[in-house]
Amino acid sequence: GAVVSQHPSRVICKSGTSVKIECRSLDFQATTMFWYRQFPKQSLMLMATSNEGSKATYEQGVEKDKFLINHASLTLSTLTVTSAHPEDSSFYICSAIKGAYEQFFGPGTRLTVL
Amino acid sequence: GDSVTQMEGPVTLSEEAFLTINCTYTATGYPSLFWYVQYPGEGLQLLLKATKADDKGSNKGFEATYRKETTSFHLEKGSVQVSDSAVYFCALFSQGGSEKLVFGKGTKLTVNP
């Protein structure tokens, strides 16, 4: 199998606080993980590529100081939304690569910033 | 650059109707093609894939054939069920191209009993 989990599944926070989202590959090792953001009724927007043991690669227009990514082990990547604001409210989805290129997706995290 | 265009939704069908969701692509390199499904409130699940021209991916009654001559990967199902209601995303991964998974905008399917 190839299972990817995310925690938490839902989080509500106050404006100005930071929120950490975890992405784990449960039954395989993943040197590369991806973080996506999905707005309502829209497609997934790739935010960054997370490589184990090195700095993440951010897509154009994504603030790396705002969205901190850490990929400290072969089964865990974290996304921290720093000083969150209501416009950061979204559905965040991670994925992990198994094998050459096949991606397996986590169930997503719904972030609501009040 | 790499891109995927899929038919605009939403699509509403009655149970047992035939489904087609069109998907065309442009890509550099040698793309593999995918259909993902997203059920309400959940992440994406791989529905089927094809890695080279003329391959047919199939799963759960869904099929799609990789057509290089028309750069298409249309999703079909002969008889849809209420449980097929979801958002369907066409995607490509181009090795030697963008090296990223590129998604279409998604097509919402609603199947009524």
Total number of beta strands of chain A: 11
Which series of helices and strands of chain A comes N to C? EEEEEEEEEEE
- Helical segment tally of chain B? 0
What is the H/E order of chain B? EEEEEEEEEEEE
Derived from helix and strand composition plus strand pairing, the structural class of chain B reads mainly beta
For the sheet with most strands of chain B, the description reads: 6 strands, mixed
Overall geometry of chain A comes to globular
Identify low-pLDDT runs of chain B: none
The general outline of chain B is globular
Q: Determine the mean pLDDT of chain B.
A: 92
| Class based on secondary structure composition and strand pairing of chain A | mainly beta
Question: What is this structure's SSE topology?
Answer:
The complex is a heterodimer of chains A (114) and B (113).
Chain A: E1 4-7, E2 10-13, E3 19-25, E4 32-38, E5 44-51, E6 57-58, E7 67-73, E8 76-81, E9 90-98, E10 102-105, E11 109-113
Chain B: E1 3-6, E2 11-14, E3 19-21, E4 23-26, E5 30-38, E6 44-50, E7 56-59, E8 62-65, E9 75-77, E10 86-95, E11 101-103, E12 107-112
Parallel strand pairs in B: 2-12
Antiparallel strand pairs in B: 1-4, 3-9, 5-6, 5-10, 7-8, 8-9, 10-11, 10-12
